[in-house]
Amino acid sequence: MNKAHVLIVDDEREFATTLTERLRLRGYEARAAFTAEAAIAAVAASSPDVVLLDLNLPGVRGVELLMNLRQQLPHGEIILLSGHLDLADKIEGVRIDAFGLLLKPVEMSELTEKIDAAQAKRGMHAPR
Amino acid sequence: MPPVEDAAIERAVRSFAAAMLGLVAHELNNRLAVMRETVGLMEDLARAGKAGVAGTARAHSSLDDQIGRALNIVRTLSGLGGALGAAGGSFDAATAIGDLVGLTERWARQKSLLIEREVAADLPRAGGDPALFLCLVHRLLVGSAGTLQPGGRILMRVARNGANIHLGLHPAGEPAAGAMATGIDDDRINRELARRLGGELMFEGGGVSTVRLAATS
After folding, report:
1. Is pLDDT of B112 > 70?
2. Could you say which of 3.40.630.30, 3.30.70.940, 3.30.565.10, 3.40.50.1110 is the CATH number of the domain covering B6-214?
């Protein structure tokens, strides 16, 4: 199985760029978007296999962005990654079919396992 | 109008405390996440034989910045804890508001909301329970934010007015679609919080709300 193409969406630039570099060192094709607009543009341009999405981006309701990305990316998987997930986000995230929810700071091994599992699920449902 | 029960006030204060703890946890988690990724990247690069002096220096600078930001949160939290621990006496309204604005910074950023302060010099201490004050100001802040579209601003103006201290919240910006005035229950609780502080909550035109507090000196 090929390593996933991962889009990291987070307004914490240092977090997103560092994580991007670490995933690249592990063989993933990774890129970062720091705003909702950049995330929507990146998904439209490159259809990533897996999106790591922070639900707390400035100026946008996280759940709305999740729904938007889900519509744009019917066969991709979205993993929610946040410094704090309230119950409403969790319930809504599951309802909109996010692949998983991870709380920062996250262990790299846990994250890559989740990404690989998302990629495997994506492969089963929508082989490229 | 029926009186506000103690239980409703207790719920409001608990809800405020929960909101603050959530914000602090969120912010500290973010700082720790950057630190963990930075250290992880240094290890990854060293393992791959790609660690350079410039990259290491950059990582150290990033870690130093994150530690500084985390310390600021802890200091603000300590200050707030000290103020809350002095419940029932008097408090420095300007410091309490400063701590509250510091802790709500991420929340405001998420809402693309600018919170500004204009605090008169040499304010006397205010009488009352600081926990009730912070709870009230937070509720008013959240209520004002709900009436604004992203990009709005709220000016918090604190000034002496005779034997009183006035805190005014002045929202400015495009009104949010379908924005409603504060609900009747919220309004009753807010007025009761102000009353229990020995003061009063007043509403003016343009969404401006003013809390009057009694000065202790």
Report:
1. yes
2. 3.30.565.10
